[in-house]
Amino acid sequence: MKKHLFTVLCAFAAVAVIASAAFAASPTLETVKKRGNLICGVNTGLTGFSAPDDKGVWRGFDVDYCRGISAAIFGDPDKVTYKPLTGKTRFPALQSGEIDVLSRNTTWTFKRDVNLGFEFVGVLYYDGQGFIARKSLGVKSAKELGGASICIQTGTTTELNLADFFRSNNMKFKSVVVEDAAEARQNYAANRCDAYTTDRSGLAAQRSVLKNPADHVILPEIISKEPLGPVVRHGDNVWGDIARWVRNALIVAEELGITSKNVDAMKKSNNPEIKRMLGQEGDFGSMLGLSKDWAYNVIKGVGNYSEIYERHIGPKTAIGLARGYNQLWTKGGILYSPPFR
Question: In angstroms, rounded to a whole number, what is the distance separating the alpha carbons of residues 82 and 262?
Fold first, then answer.
């Protein structure tokens, strides 16, 4: 009898520990709330992803993810301070607590996830490294770039990928190392390098702001996998969950047909997952330290994944990126989210 009672008490204790963990406070969330705004690390300026407009307002695909977190926390998407960071400065800024989240076309790798003490909360954009060159150079393939000078940003995975590609193809190249995307574009535009390499999404963004975009071609080779996603520090699991489920909410909203325009009407849906997601049933928000309607606020404030994509980088924008792998898994892509259940 005593042994049975001991087993029951242990079971209750385990449940209590699990419940306590589920509803644990987040030091980062409390800091953000007390400060009154989110500090988000972004690119120093990459059109379509994160760049200030002519009025100094930050806009872009990565920027809207930051706005989504702000909406989840404050019910307002615009309580964000943007911290522009280069490839070299982004990780120290996150490690030191200078920023709360990094939303800057950052590739998820083993060393960054494990050795640097970071947590990638999911892939926001599936990408791959490529090359851009002037059409006048006359090359139709990256394998014709032997002996070329290549502009490349320091502190990025593209440096190793570039070296590996040329080495595996028995070619030589000359590196023209730059600090950020703007400097890379300036050097490339000034003919200081024959080609420029980075993620293909970045190449499309850079080409869109060149003087004559049609004079430049993105070569067909994709030489790496570049899963780009938001990053937080290890050690604050609840904050990681907030960052992760804001990303997931954007994707699930698209799957379920919830948009910024119809989200109010969708509150009346009979779909149980929609009800849970929009705070009409259950209390998923309290598990994150947020209000019941946190996901509603995200969608109302920034839209679903498709709305953000089409607004900033889709085929109808100057960037002109087709969805490709970033299409929903139900439509031939690999974009996927766990369910709200």
Answer: 29
